[in-house]
């Protein structure tokens, strides 16, 4: 799989990372060689193999339905880049 | 006095217990050395005031029955520490101060340890040389211009340079064992689920495990004992009784079956590594172990599999760094989407971006089956390889790395050659098994090299024992000359 | 629209179309704490006060699932006659949005907790089965507030991480009316089960509406548009009307429909393309590595099955078979759990059929007038039953009963007491009645003669006089009997 600039543009949009044109060339080259390496896997026939769903063989543990968290607004807003005492604040969203 | 910090953790603990040194004195010795060792760049944040205060508190009321009585420790800067900056080696989190403590560090403090500082690492633990850190690369104390390995490079460097008596790292594809091998120290990656992941900045959730990095196998057993344990806050934490690894440590390995996988004899591997591996085999043989040739046929597919699974998980795990709740936010951009794109472009370094893009791609519509699903199938095959052989052998011996420490900048422009560093360590993470890297010798440049012992699920005690027996009979000596002082 | 025959079709310029609708209903699970954290789920709390480090996606935070949410999903699945999957998987749905702190929503993609099921709708043109494709558990997002500041959006994460059940129907719905009945039926079932309060004002029940149209006679489904996040039945119906007409117009103009996500603009009553979702269609689902596969033992399913309450369909059948109600009455009385609970209490203490008639007549009319629910009715079920009993026994007449009812509404008092204190008991003593009737007949000799000579209509006049004389308390049946007897003589 050769990765070209258009693909880089597409996936960087999905990943919400802006990439300038110069970087994009370099990334296309790097990713092409990485995918060439990754595609060694195609040598293997895995048609009859079940994908690994979890490395642990134990079932999912669950917790009781108790309220034992929250009420820490100050703590969660303390690190936010735009200060506000009640909310997280982001640039206007256009829907 | 300064000779004390050259000692192993277990010896220092004895000194504290015998009241031959106070925690405060000990802490000051490390502070002094850390202050003189800035050149290595192994610390991102120092917590000296806290350390002194805690040490004083300890000295006033010493609880010498704890595992780490009054021991100052620096930890990889991937562990969230309450009230102390936690950066993950990234610009994204350069000013992030958590108001919570990771379970693992909390466990250490409960055992009497004291936070000394936060250690440099590759950005979000993505790297094999500690050159991707926003806070600059770390230098390996074995020689100027060499890398300490990664991603727990700061931890390995600080440990080898005696800037902390022991430390902890995280290992997603070799990030504890490879730097341990590069610095002549001991590093253990526990069974997936033995050490809680709660409060550790996540890289790849199905692979990440925290583990100890120490100067000796005995130290390693003490640290693991302090760290390990069930945590109900981590859904992947294994529910089991705590083990006394240090008390049960023994050198008798007679009759143990040690497997030697032929697939680890890779092309272009330096002859000295092969020789070292043979040396390891012989030592274990002499100690009464049976050496058995085995085959792990899917070994060569582990690295390609890893470079699908790990980036896929990372691309999702790192989506939360978006400039909204904490961390870096770009001032550029007129709307939310532009804010995201600029924040993540400016806040992440190149390697992190590269991996996020790989991960985004392998999960994207039309490619999921070809890459991600395929990789999970191959991961199953790799796990089966180990499962089948662990019917026949008790542990597996391999080299830890395909080379010794390389020069700074040597591999930064060739991602694949960098990734190949983890060729022997990655299969273990994919299978969720425990493995320890223990120093075995020096190459002709005088750089250390390690051997890796891989164990069955939750068989940490066994690989610690084999490593302990090996260590006692190997006569490895790290030659670090304090050239930076 | 005719009531007894389905006829919701759209006449375009060229062709006649039917409308194909599928719903993805998001129902908030009734639970104390969130799906993966211990924060509270209460509606209307201070902004960001019900948020943990997990809900706000701080580094290193990990999800641990709430047992009750799993049980609630199983109960709901059972209520929808659906298959409960013994193995299911939580996946991450990856996309960026201000109120999605993790950058992904934990949801279930390929292996949901509940598989295929069905819901029965009672339509005027007969009963109709709507297929359920699946039900899965997922996290809710937070709330973005766009109108507090001209340049910024404010984010409240109180809702972030609350458990939702997404209930996906098959494209079996054919009209806004069916959508209305379907949503109400789902809500009724969940309220019976106690798995979702169904409160649409508080956003506990919302839906994405998939709409397509197809020419009558065509087999293939047309291209559908998804109208996101509609939060009232009325808006759903309006959105479907608008959207189906838009599609018909385009098709008859020879244009193609683009498969897209649309938004219903409640101010303009129209749907429009949603720009912000355009490039977000690639959700890159994959199993959440922080969680293990969810295994549900058959034992748990069986246990939950045993504790399920009687559901509306079964209750309705019982009301018809055991209580002698007709299908219409039964339908109305099971439509809300509170109503059926009230009715059952009344029916237990009085005549079942008469209770139904009086509940659906005077009681509902009064509640409607006062804008009240059955749960805050001024008349308790016990008092209401007493009233029905008094009517049935002939102690009071229907007319008096209405008076007693009015007093009960005002005072909330026991009807027996009201009847006693106001002397409203029916006059059922034949001797007393005969006395009154004889007096009236004597007073109106001329009318008696007219009656006897064939003017039988006058019978009503005599009844009226008796009632007037007795203050309305004369037992009508007895009055009739005695009047007839005396007039013959």
Report on the structure:
- The complex is a heterotrimer of chains A (95), B (485) and C (489).
- Chain A has a domain at 5-43: Orthogonal Bundle (Histone, subunit A).
- Chain A is built from 3 helices and 2 strands; from the N terminus they run H-H-E-H-E.
- Chain A has helices spanning 5-14, 21-38, 73-77, and strands at residues 62-63, 88-91.
- In chain A, helix 1 crosses helix 2 (21-38).
- The two termini of chain A are 36 Å apart.
- Chain B has a domain at 4-256: Alpha-Beta Complex (Amidase signature (AS) enzymes), CATH 3.90.1300.10.
- Helix content of chain B is 36%, strand content 13%.
- In chain B, the strands form 2 sheets. Chain B has an 8-stranded mixed sheet with strand order 4-6-5-10-11-9-7-8, with helices on both faces. In chain B, strands 1-3-2 form a 3-stranded mixed sheet, sandwiched between helices.
- Chain B is globular, with a radius of gyration of 21 Å.
- In chain C, helix 7 (337-349) packs across helix 9 (381-392).
- Chain C has 3 domains: 9-304, no CATH class; 310-422, no CATH class; 430-488, Arc Repressor Mutant, subunit A (Orthogonal Bundle), CATH 1.10.10.
- Chain C contains 15 helices and 17 strands.
- Chain C starts with 8 loop residues before the first strand and ends with a helix.
- In chain C, strands 1, 2, 7, 8, 11, 12, 13, 14 and 15 form a 9-stranded mixed sheet that branches. A 3-stranded antiparallel sheet of chain C has the order 6-5-16, with no helix packed on it.
- Chain C has helices spanning 67-79, 176-193, 233-252, 298-306, 312-323, 327-334, 337-349, 352-370, 381-392, 398-411, 415-422, 430-443, 445-452, 459-470, 476-488; strands spanning 9-11, 16-28, 65-66, 87-88, 91-94, 104-107, 117-123, 126-139, 143-145, 152-156, 163-169, 205-215, 225-230, 261-265, 270-273, 286-287, 294-295.
- Chain C is of the alpha+beta class and 489 residues long.
- At the B-C interface, helix 9 and helix 10 of B face loops of C.
Give me some keywords for this one.
heterotrimer, A: 95 residues, mainly alpha, Histone, subunit A, 3 helices, C: 489 residues, alpha+beta, Arc Repressor Mutant, subunit A, 3 domains, nine-stranded mixed beta sheet, three-stranded antiparallel beta sheet, 17 strands
């Amino acid at each position: 799989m050769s990765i070209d600039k258009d693909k880089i543009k597409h996936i960087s949009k999905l990943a919400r990372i802006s990439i300038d044109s110069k970087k994009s060339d370099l990334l296309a080259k790097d990713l092409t060689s990485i995918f060439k390496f990754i595609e060694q896997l195609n040598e293997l026939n895995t048609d009859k193999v079940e994908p690994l769903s979890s490395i642990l063989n134990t079932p999912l543990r669950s917790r009781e339905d108790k309220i034992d968290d929250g009420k820490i607004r100050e703590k969660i807003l303390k690190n936010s880049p735009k200060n506000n005492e009640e909310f997280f604040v982001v640039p206007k969203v256009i829907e | 006095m300064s000779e004390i910090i050259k000692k192993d953790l277990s010896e220092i603990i004895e000194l504290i217990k015998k009241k031959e040194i106070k925690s405060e004195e000990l802490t000051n010795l490390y502070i002094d050395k850390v202050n003189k060792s800035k050149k290595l760049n192994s610390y991102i944040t120092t917590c000296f005031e806290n350390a002194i205060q805690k040490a004083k508190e300890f000295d006033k009321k010493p609880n010498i029955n704890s595992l780490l009585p009054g021991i100052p420790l620096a930890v990889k800067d991937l562990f969230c520490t309450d009230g102390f900056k936690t950066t993950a080696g990234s610009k994204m989190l350069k000013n992030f101060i958590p108001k919570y403590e990771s379970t693992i560090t909390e466990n250490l403090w409960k055992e009497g340890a004291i936070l000394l500082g936060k250690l440099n690492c590759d950005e979000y633990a993505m790297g094999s040389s500690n050159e991707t850190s926003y806070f600059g690369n770390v230098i390996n104390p074995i020689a100027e211009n060499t890398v300490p390995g990664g991603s727990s490079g700061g931890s390995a460097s600080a440990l080898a340079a005696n800037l902390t008596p022991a430390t902890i790292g995280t290992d997603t594809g070799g990030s504890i064992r490879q730097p341990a091998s590069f610095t002549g120290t001991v590093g253990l990656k526990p069974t997936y689920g033995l050490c809680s992941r709660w409060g550790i900045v996540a890289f790849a959730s199905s692979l990440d495990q925290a583990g100890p990095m120490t100067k000796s196998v005995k130290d390693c057993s003490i640290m693991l004992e302090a760290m390990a344990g069930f945590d109900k806050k981590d859904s992947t934490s294994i529910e089991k009784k705590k083990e006394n690894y240090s008390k049960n440590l023994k050198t008798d390995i007679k009759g143990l079956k040690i497997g030697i996988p032929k697939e680890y004899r890779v092309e272009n591997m330096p002859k000295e590594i092969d020789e070292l591996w043979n040396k390891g085999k012989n030592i274990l043989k002499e100690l009464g172990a049976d050496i058995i040739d085995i085959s792990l046929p899917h070994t060569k597919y582990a690295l390609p599999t890893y470079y699908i699974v790990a980036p896929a998980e990372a691309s999702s795990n790192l989506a939360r760094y978006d400039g909204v709740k904490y961390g870096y936010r770009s001032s550029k951009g007129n709307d939310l989407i532009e804010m995201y794109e600029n924040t993540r472009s400016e806040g992440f370094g190149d390697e992190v971006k590269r991996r996020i893009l790989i991960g985004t791609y392998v999960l994207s519509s039309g490619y999921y089956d070809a890459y991600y699903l395929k990789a999970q199938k191959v991961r199953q095959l790799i796990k089966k390889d180990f499962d089948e052989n662990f019917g026949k052998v008790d542990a597996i011996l391999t080299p830890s790395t395909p080379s010794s420490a390389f020069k700074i900048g040597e591999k930064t422009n060739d991602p694949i050659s960098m990734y190949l560093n983890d060729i022997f360590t990655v299969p273990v993470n994919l299978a969720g098994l425990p493995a320890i890297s223990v120093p075995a010798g020096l190459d002709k440049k005088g750089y250390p090299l390690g051997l890796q012992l891989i164990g069955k699920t939750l068989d940490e005690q066994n690989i610690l024992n084999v490593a302990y027996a090996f260590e006692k009979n190997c006569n490895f000596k790290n030659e670090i000359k304090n050239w930076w002082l | 629209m005719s009531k007894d025959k389905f006829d919701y079709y759209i006449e375009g310029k060229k062709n006649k179309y039917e409308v194909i609708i599928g719903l993805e209903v998001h129902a908030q699970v009734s639970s104390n704490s969130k799906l993966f954290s211990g924060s509270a789920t209460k509606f209307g709390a201070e902004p960001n006060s019900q948020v943990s480090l997990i809900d706000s996606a701080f580094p290193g935070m990990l999800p641990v699932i709430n047992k009750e949410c799993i049980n609630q999903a199983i109960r709901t699945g059972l209520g929808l006659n659906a298959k409960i999957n013994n193995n299911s998987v939580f996946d991450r749905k990856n996309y960026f949005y201000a109120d999605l702190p993790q950058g992904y929503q934990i949801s279930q993609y390929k292996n949901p907790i509940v598989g295929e099921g069905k819901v029965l709708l009672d339509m005027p043109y007969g009963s109709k089965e709507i297929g359920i494709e699946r039900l899965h558990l997922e996290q809710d997002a937070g709330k973005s507030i766009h109108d507090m500041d001209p340049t910024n959006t404010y984010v409240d994460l109180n809702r972030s991480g609350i458990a939702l059940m997404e209930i996906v129907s098959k494209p079996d719905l054919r009209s806004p009316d069916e959508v209305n009945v379907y949503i109400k039926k789902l809500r009724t079932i969940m309220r019976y089960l106690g798995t979702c309060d169904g409160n649409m004002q508080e956003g506990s029940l919302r839906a994405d509406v998939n709409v397509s149209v197809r020419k009558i006679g065509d087999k293939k489904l047309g291209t559908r548009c998804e109208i996101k996040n509609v939060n009232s039945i009325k808006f759903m119906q309006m959105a479907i009307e608008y959207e189906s007409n838009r599609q018909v117009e385009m098709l008859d103009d020879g244009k193609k429909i683009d498969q897209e996500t649309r938004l219903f603009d409640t101010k303009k009553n129209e749907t429009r393309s949603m720009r912000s979702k355009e490039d977000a269609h690639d959700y890159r689902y994959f199993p959440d590595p922080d969680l293990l596969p969810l295994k549900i033992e058959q034992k748990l399913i069986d246990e939950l099955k045993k504790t399920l309450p009687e559901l509306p369909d079964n209750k309705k059948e019982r009301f018809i078979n055991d209580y002698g109600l007709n299908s219409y009455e039964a339908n109305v009385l099971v439509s809300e759990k509170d109503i059926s609970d009230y009715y059952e209490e009344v029916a237990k203490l009085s005549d079942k059929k008469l209770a139904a008639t009086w509940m659906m007549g005077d009681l509902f009319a009064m509640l409607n007038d006062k804008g009240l629910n059955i749960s805050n009715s001024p008349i308790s079920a016990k008092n209401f039953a007493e009233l029905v009993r008094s009517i049935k026994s002939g102690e009071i007449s229907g007319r008096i009963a209405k008076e007693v009812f009015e007093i009960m509404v005002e005072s909330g008092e026991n009807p027996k007491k009201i009847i006693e204190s106001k002397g409203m008991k029916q006059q059922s003593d034949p001797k007393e009645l005969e006395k009154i009737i004889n007096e009236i007949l004597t007073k109106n000799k001329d009318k008696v003669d007219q009656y006897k000579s064939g003017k039988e209509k006058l019978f009503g006049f005599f009844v009226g006089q008796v009632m007037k004389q007795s203050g309305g308390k004369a037992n009508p049946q007895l009055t009739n009997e005695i009047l007839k007897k005396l007039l013959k003589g």
